[in-house]
Design goal:
There is one protein chain. The protein has 25 helices and 22 strands. With about 500 residues, the protein is α+β, with helices and mostly antiparallel strands. Among the domains are: about 55 residues, Orthogonal Bundle (Multidrug-efflux Transporter Regulator, Chain: A, Domain 2); about 50 residues; about 60 residues, Orthogonal Bundle (Multidrug-efflux Transporter Regulator, Chain: A, Domain 2); about 60 residues, no CATH class; about 50 residues; about 60 residues, Multidrug-efflux Transporter Regulator, Chain: A, Domain 2 (Orthogonal Bundle), CATH 1.10.1660. A 3-stranded antiparallel sheet has the order 1-3-2. It has a 3-stranded antiparallel sheet with strand order 4-6-5. Strand 2 and strand 3 form a beta hairpin. The relative contact order is 0.04.
């Protein structure tokens, strides 16, 4: 219907002015059918005033507004508490407010309920006292050198660090400068800088220098035998100990009465639960005793310990399975390329851990590693155990044949990880038997060929492989041909043995 403009009809510009929006929004509402319009003779759209009033009201409610004086929109409430509307909606969905909705289905809040809640929440950071210097948790972490925020939050939850809650996009706690200084002073009092004897070392450096684990040093700190100074640097909190203090503690701990299961496990390179199990089963004698540097612990006799360890076949790693658990002075000298007197000095001063000249394999390899040398299971060149490739070169055969001997238990072998070690003497005996076997029959000395002539047969029985060589076929082809012809055979050594007459008849039938 084409009409002329009147007061009941508004142009798009007039409708946008009354609605307080852009012309594109009015045009979009026309396209969506939310507004009704008529057109003039020139094709100009005129919006009906009645539909415009309804659309303005719909926009007001769609934006979350309300016409109830006892209610407040989410956007207005968010502006009052300086919070994003989405965060306020999250509070509504979690049950902090009674749920109310306007005609458009948008959330609205009860005004009295909102005012009561408003006084219970933390203020925004912008409303804190501007005359004070406030530190965030991240700034405190960087200042103290902590690796994470967890230690700082633990101090806040314990009440040792006074913090103020606030609403900030990046933190929920801030600390005033005076409170931070008080906490730092109290923290220094709780962790005083004690006097350390000798060179200052970290626990890791001391453990590497004296050949013990960090757990041993922490145990000494717990018992008060090793004074320690707690240091806070960039990264994790570390402890400093004095070299002389560590030496005194280890000297006291190394007495005859201090052979605990923990120390025995470290000395032998075994796992602590394994020693606990063998002591409970009675395989390793032990007693419950109390030591001034250790406390009540289960103690083992070192002589009985070394005697028991020498009988076991429990290497500390799979590569050392072919070696004994205990090494002596001569083996240590050979692996380290030193003379016996030099190694004896290392045994006496404790550089090479031992007990009455007996050296655990684990301690020997660790000592060799500190000198930049390969471990004993790599440096043992005169060992009677050879790898498969070395065994093949030693015997003058292929590596495949060595593996065949291992699988059939024709040579003495041991597993080493995914590989095998072959005993030298058993390998040489098997190689001698292999090369001393009677020579092949003349008809079997010819290599495989596509056309093998019928030869004079000299053996009484032939295997599938030998029949294949006579016929010029592959072993699989010869097997199928003999099976298809139903030639007679006998069983021997786990394989088929065909008589000479059957093989001769089969070769003649092939007309070679």
């Amino acid at each position: 219907m084409l009409i002329q403009p009147s007061t009941l009809h508004l142009t798009i510009e007039q409708a946008a002015h009354l609605a307080g929006c852009s012309k594109s929004a009015v045009q979009r509402a026309l396209n969506q059918g939310r507004l009704t319009a008529v057109y003039t003779a020139q094709g100009r759209a005129l919006v009906l005033r009645e539909s415009l009033d309804l659309w303005i009201e719909w926009r007001f409610f769609y934006a979350g507004g309300t016409d109830d004086a006892d209610k407040i929109s989410v956007n207005q409430a968010a502006e009052l508490v300086e919070m994003r509307p989405a965060n306020l909606v999250d509070y509504i969905e979690r049950g902090a407010f009674t749920e109310h909705r306007n005609p458009a289905g948008r959330y609205i809040l009860d005004r009295q309920e909102f005012e009561a809640w408003r006084h219970t929440i933390a203020p925004p950071r912008s409303r804190l006292d501007p005359s004070l210097r406030w530190y965030t948790v991240e700034e405190i972490r960087k200042l103290t050198g902590y690796a994470s925020h967890l230690p700082i939050y633990s101090e806040i939850q314990a009440g040792r660090l006074k913090a103020t809650q606030c609403r900030d996009p990046h933190t929920i706690h801030v600390v005033a400068q005076a409170d931070l200084q008080k906490w730092l002073k109290e923290r220094s009092r709780r962790f005083p800088q004690v006097a350390l004897k000798g060179e200052k070392l970290t626990l890791e450096e001391a453990a590497r220098r004296y050949g013990v684990t960090v757990m041993v040093l922490r145990q000494g700190m717990k018992l008060g035998m090793i004074p320690a100074s707690r240091q806070v640097t960039k990264g994790p909190v570390i402890y400093l100990v004095g070299s002389e203090d560590v030496e005194e503690y280890l000297k006291l701990r190394a007495s005859d009465e201090a052979w605990t299961l923990v120390r025995a496990a470290e000395f032998l390179g075994l796992k602590y639960p394994y020693l606990v199990r063998v002591t409970r089963e009675g395989d390793l004698p032990s007693r419950l005793d109390r030591h001034p540097a250790i406390g009540p612990r289960r103690i083992v006799d070192p002589d009985q310990l070394m005697e028991w360890f020498a009988r076991q076949r429990i290497p500390y790693r799979k590569e050392a399975v072919h070696l004994s658990n205990v090494a002596d002075l001569s083996e240590a000298a050979r692996c380290s390329h030193r003379i016996l007197s030099d190694v004896r000095i290392c045994l006496e001063d404790g550089t090479l851990p031992n007990w009455k000249g007996l050296i655990p394999r684990f301690a020997l390899d660790r000592w060799l590693e500190q000198q930049g040398l390969p471990p004993s299971w790599q440096a043992d060149r005169d060992s009677q155990w050879l790898r498969t490739d070395a065994a093949a070169r030693e015997a003058g055969v292929s590596k495949y044949l060595v593996h065949k001997w291992i699988n059939s238990d024709e040579v003495q072998s041991r597993a080493r990880g995914r590989n095998y070690l072959v005993h030298r003497q058993s390998l040489l005996r098997r190689a001698e038997e292999y090369f001393s076997q009677p020579p092949l029959a003349p008809e079997l000395k010819t290599p495989y060929q596509t056309e093998a002539p019928v030869a004079r047969l000299t053996q009484d029985y032939y295997t599938i492989v030998e029949a294949a060589r006579l016929s010029g076929m592959t072993p699989g082809g010869a097997y199928k041909a003999l099976e298809r012809g139903k030639y007679g055979y006998e069983r021997g050594s786990g394989q088929r043995l065909y008589p000479r007459q059957e093989i001769q008849r089969w070769l003649e039938s092939r007309k070679i």
